[in-house]
Design goal:
By secondary structure, this protein is of the alpha/beta class. The chain folds into 2 domains: 3-243, 3-Layer(aba) Sandwich (Aspartate Aminotransferase, domain 2); 247-367, Aspartate Aminotransferase, domain 1, CATH 3.90.1150.10. It is built from 14 helices and 12 strands. The strands form 2 sheets. A 7-stranded mixed beta sheet has the order 1-7-6-5-4-2-3, sandwiched between helices. A 5-stranded mixed beta sheet has the order 8-9-12-11-10. Helix 2 packs parallel to helix 9 (233-243), helix 3 (75-84) runs parallel beside helix 4 (100-108) and helix 12 (306-312) crosses helix 14. The longest helix is centred in the last third of the chain and has 20 residues, at 246-265. The structure holds pyridoxal-5'-phosphate (PLP). Pyridoxal-5'-phosphate (PLP) binds at residues 74-76, 99, 101, 141, 145, 170, 172-173, 192, 194-195, 204, 206.
Length: 368
């Protein structure tokens, strides 16, 4: 089945006898046992699993072309679970512009437990020289945050396979609609479902999807169920509701993203536009090969005071995060703090689903 059909039907698991067309919200934390001590519905206790989470995991595994998924209470927890599943003393290779929150986790929470090389994964020939005897994983993020760098997933997967490394990919910016890293050789795909998957800036969540149910995946499932950083049934219900329209929302985000990128790329007040859909993007050819569309995220370098521009917009909300129906704009360096490498004149834009003419008019007045 095609993405639109999977999005609507794969997560609609109905156990009730009341004839519901859409899956009801199951708030029960505990489930009846039968006279033999078994669990006739397959559910025991809602930290371990519950019907709404099972449905979310099913539709995400299907959308990402994997075999199983684990849902978490945030994207950060989803990523942290992968790092927790590695043996102490392991070395991992991560991107130099890795999502800021993960970089912070690895440098603070995993200090003394894991060692990390943050390298430019767009330089494929550079990767192998960083592999050591204790290297166990390559973590990619494409498109990356906030520079929209594109990592060649097929090329990195080949290096990972040759060196027996786990290959994980944060695919949040692409959504499962525009890129399926498992089909390109990744072992694990990660999403912050707070972003496009939720799509309405009103639910926090994270997802991991696996290409195979191996020992490493069992560790991840164990950390989810025993660690317990799980989403509530209501979080899952909201995400399931959102996923039904995900493919159509993504088309709108991509259409507006491309139009805004084109408009800004010839604007005299803009020094550079980072958008993988523009032929001027250094990895445009790779993006064309591995993505079916380029999404709704872009960053620009402003000729002048970027903070002034984000204070002048009226329709764009000056706020962090991304992937919602409403357009957001952000001066990224001031969010990331004093030790950031993000340029001071960089603005990150999450292009929403408003009419493109209104968005362009707003940016135009802010830039002038
Ligand atoms: C937001 C984000 C995360 C973290 O997800 P949370 O849901 O905020 O915990 C991870 N990776 C990327 C690319 C993100 O944009």
């Amino acid at each position: 089945m095609q993405t639109e059909t999977i999005a609507i039907h794969a997560g609609n698991l109905i156990h009730s006898t009341t004839g519901d067309v859409t899956q009801p919200l199951s708030l029960s934390t505990t489930f009846y046992r039968d006279e033999n001590g078994g669990y006739p519905g397959g559910y025991v206790y809602s930290r371990v699993s519950n019907p709404n989470r099972s449905a979310l995991e099913k539709v995400m595994a299907d959308l990402e072309k994997g075999v199983d998924a684990c849902a978490f209470s945030s994207g950060n927890t989803a990523g942290m679970t992968v790092f927790q599943a590695l043996l102490p003393g392991s070395h991992i290779i991560a991107p130099d512009d890795m999502y800021w929150g993960f970089k912070k986790q690895l440098q603070s929470i995993f200090e003394g437990i894991l060692t990390i090389d943050f390298i430019d994964l767009t330089q494929i020939s550079n990767i192998e020289s960083h592999i050591k005897s204790n290297t166990v994983m390559i973590w990619a993020e494409t498109p990356s945050n906030p520079l929209l760098k594109i990592t060649d997933l097929v090329a990195v997967a080949a290096i990972a396979r040759k060196n027996h490394l786990i290959f994980a990919c944060d695919s949040t910016f692409a959504s499962p609609c525009f890129q399926n890293p498992i089909l390109l050789g990744a072992d694990i795909v990660m999403h912050s479902s707070t972003k496009y998957i939720g799509g309405h800036s009103d639910v926090l969540g994270g997802i991991l999807v696996t290409a195979s149910k191996n020992e490493f995946w069992e560790k991840i499932r164990n950390i989810q169920q025993i660690g317990g950083a799980v989403p509530s049934p209501f979080d899952c219900f909201l995400l399931l509701r959102s996923i039904k329209t995900l493919p159509y929302r993504m088309r709108g985000h991509a259409e507006n993203g491309m139009a805004l990128a084109k408009y800004l790329s010839v604007h005299p007040k803009i020094e550079a536009v980072y958008y993988p859909g523009l032929p001027s993007h250094p990895q445009h050819e790779i993006a064309k090969k591995q993505m079916s569309s380029f999404g709704g995220m872009l960053s620009v370098l402003v000729n002048g005071d970027a903070r002034k521009v984000v204070n002048q917009v009226k329709l764009f909300a000056q706020a962090t995060s991304l992937g919602g129906v409403e357009s957001l704009i952000e001066h990224r360096a001031s969010v990331e703090g004093p030790d950031t490498k993000t340029p001071q004149n960089l603005i990150r834009i999450s292009v929403g689903l408003e009419h493109i003419n209104d968005l362009i008019a707003d940016i135009e007045q802010a830039l002038s």
